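Hey, can you fold this?
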Amino acid sequence: MNESKWWREYAELLTLLFIHGMAMGMWFVPLGSVLDGNGYTDVRIFGAAVSVKALAFATGGISAFISPLIFGAIADQRMAPVKLLRWLAFATGCAMCAATTAIKFHAPPLAVLGLILLHALFSTPTWSISTTIVFSRLGDARRQFGPIRAMATVGWVLGCIIVSLLDADRSALAGYCGTVAWVLVLAFSFTLPMVAPPAPTEHLTWKQRLGLDALLLLRNRDNLVVFVAAALYNIPLAAYYPYSPTHLAQLGLTHTTAWMTLGQVTEVIAMFSLAGVLTRWRLKHVFLAGIGFGVLRYGLCAFDGKWWLLTGITLHGFAFALFFITMQIYLEQRIEARWRARAQALFVLMYSGFGNTLGYLGCGWWFSASTTGKVTHWPQFWGGLSVSVACVFVVFALAYKGRGSGEPAARMSGN
């Protein structure tokens, strides 16, 4: 490949993840504040009051049980990933616009939650599809993926800053901005080369069509450990976006969406450092470093001070990138090419499906348990979450072996 063509392809991948990250950040980060600002607090279900915010964030986890494996299987077996991303971007933008309009005109909470769930069903698989597109065009994922993935974080940061500059942190305008960003993803997909999936060599069973055959990947011990660890680690991490902005606001900070981008600054630093880190450290130690930063982050937030909380938010990038981005590279190095979209989709199911669903609902319960009247006991809330992350650290340190498979990932730096 000549140098000009290589730079063109590199720029395409950077742009794809940049606008994809911007679209996701404009919706996900301010969502809790937008619901608060429009009066969506509790909804009664079977006579019990349930937090609308917890249910809204849990929709992403619920959808992760359904859509990623199905669309991952389609990308692996029947439709070019670029074409699939194009249709999903269109559907996501339409659903986001509908949900935003419902919030703006104060539709009943259950109607709003239904539209947010519809949005999640379309948006949840898009990230694994984009990741599959990127990995399919990289020669050395271990060295190249980190900087390219960092552009998604840069786009996420820019999206959050735009929302705050428009003073839309608590306004439905944030959702309309996200809708425009998804239109950009849709438009840009037409510039990407179409690579058809491999033709199936045999009749596909329903298990294969639904992507359930990806569960066979869990037969490998290390695969099982990292997938389960991703789910367990994401349970306490699910508290970060719904409750950090609330804590910031209670400490007197405005434009909370912009303040939350401090975590993305360190995320970019971590991703640009991954190539060097992965060639010098055992993979197990990189995973443990990420979890360790998660323990420290929530521990600092528990001090319940403005600068302690901002420092904890800043550490989010290390806690996220050193574990979750490393895991995506792990899957790319270890899994056969014909299984990779399903492997990335199974990753989404585990950390977003199990992790986020249990996390958003569980952290919602823990937040209520840590709140008396209108006063939240933040040291109790964040301290309990820090302890739970520490338990994941211990379990992963004891369970993950990282040797003896003879596969590419097992050869990385002596893993």
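Oh, and this one too while you're at it.
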Amino acid sequence: MPGFLDRHRAQRLMEAQGLAALVLTQPESIVYATGAFPGVATNWRRAGAAFVVIPADAGTPLAAVVGDLQARSFAAQSGIADTRSHRIWVEAGDAEDASRPKRSPRPAQYRLTDTLELLRDILSERGLLQAAIGLELSFISAADYPAFAAMPAAWQDATRLVERLRSVKAPREIEYLRSAAEYAGAGLKQLLAAIEPGMDAARMTEFWTAAAVAEAAKRGAPAPGSWAYISVAGDGFAPGGPARAGDLVKIDVGCVVSGYSSDGGRTAVLGRPRPEAERIYDALHRAFDTGFAMLTPGTPLADIYRATATSMWEQGFETYNRGHFGHGVGASVWSEEWPFISADSDAVIEPGMVLAFETPWYIDGLGGFIIEDQMLITETGPEVMAPSPRDLIRIG
């Protein structure tokens, strides 16, 4: 299959949860599993615009339900022979086709009842209609769930199962994330050389974006997407500026390649930092080093959180209670995705994960601090994708 789904890993996870099959309905999950766009109706981000049925048995073919406008291209791109279509609002096709319905208006978007009927047919034909089926319940609204509940399937929440599948990256996903991190890192290096008194966060963002795009062009790659949270002094999150002597500049940026977003950050200061800023940064740096040393396969993320937080507390910052010290990166709707390096995490580091590890702090009146690296977890530990010095960067 052209997607990134590991059928054997999926089988193990489904068997552990007692599932006979998994039904994907979140657009990002469908693209991940199949490598194909599931149709324009999914742009509304409502459950049921498309489905992909993944039987637990890794040798059993997948099935799909997508809008009729793109059903043919979806089947060709995904390789899913059993692709069934439902009517969406777009009128297309052969105007002379006598088999087309007459005086039968299409829906304004799509009909959930139509797509669920097709899903029911697939499950019934495969003997799964009354089986335990995993469903991404975090994506299904309260308004839509009753229609799912009316089916005889024994639905179970498989949100975390899908997150676990997507957390271990395929080689091509890793290359997307590596390229994105390298473009962002090159832009960061050029921005740091260009910052001067009088620049505000908006101008820094423009400069960084142009530099990151230029790096991609230099490598013969298409222009990446980008996002940036750059702040100058202030509260550490609002943009702020113009920059003056002693101001902190927090630079948290990412590029997006083929839907995959990088995430990394550094902190700079114009001239000499205030003693309080220097003390806080040194503590964050020590805490970062403590947690980073633990980013090895088999380590529970909760243990990494505890060690990083304890480092801050033992350095005198007992009110520093950040919710997580990093997260997965990938092709989610944001730059942060499961798993999170948090106090209540139940995840354990696995080879093939790509994580962003960070120790940020935003302090009113002083500014923002961040040390953040994106890394691939290898069999022996973390490999930083766009390495650069982690010291507080002094400008001028």
